[in-house]
Amino acid sequence: MELITSVKNNRVKAWASLKQKKFRNSTGRYLLEGVRLVEEAIDAGAPIEEILISGDQLSGRFDKIITAATGMGVALYDVAESVLEHVADTQSPQGVIAIVKKSEGDAYAFLANKEKPLYLILDGIQDPGNLGTMIRTADAVGATGVFVGSTCVDVYNPKVVRSAMGSMFHLPVFEVELGTLLPNLREHGVSVVATTVDAEQTVFAADFAGAVALVIGSEARGVSSEIAGMVDTQVTLPMPGKAESLNAATAASVMLYEALRQRL
Known about the structure:
The chain is an alpha/beta fold. The protein has eleven helices and twelve strands. It has two domains: 2-101, CATH 3.30.1330.30; 107-263, Alpha/beta knot. A seven-stranded parallel beta sheet has the order 8-7-6-11-9-12-10, with helices on both faces. A five-stranded mixed beta sheet has the order 1-4-3-5-2. GO terms for molecular function: RNA binding; RNA methyltransferase activity. This is TrmH family RNA methyltransferase.
């Protein structure tokens, strides 16, 4: 492994820049921190380009990563702990960071030939933890795929990646323009259902057993008026208690698990 000890090294500067969205977009790469997530990426065959391991923490727990990376032809770097801390988004990195190429795929080609798909569509989600949790929940219920609208927080934001806990390697996640996606869904026979506060039908009365896409709106404003005007059905989550609203990730979980219940 090449040894790097200075935070002024050009490679280190390039790695650290991936904490910013503009550099993730321009390079098509993102950061993946922690032993578990890096191992998940390896097991899933994710397009890892480089792996940084702090020499101060080299131990048996990295053997799997080192062996797999060597077999995959991935560049390995032995970096000083100060370098790892400079590159990492977290305050206490776990000794390993991977540089991963963004997933590529045609969202519209993906829609073809799916039997009774269950999609999650996200409109204006701003909290990275919420977005990551939604991806993780979609993975848990066996959803077909997740479509993240352009007004959402960046899918490859380090906090989103950590919150998803490897689920983004288990199911397709696409960044799309929802105004273009929704008509395409209809062409493929998919019913689009959105949560709104003033809908008359509850989520428990809706039919999610067929081909369906569930739309969850932003934490502050819900589904945008543009998207609400394009859906087939609007449903509400009943709240007989005194809470004013539900967290967006919680609402997505209720919707997804109700869809799963109907499909079991």
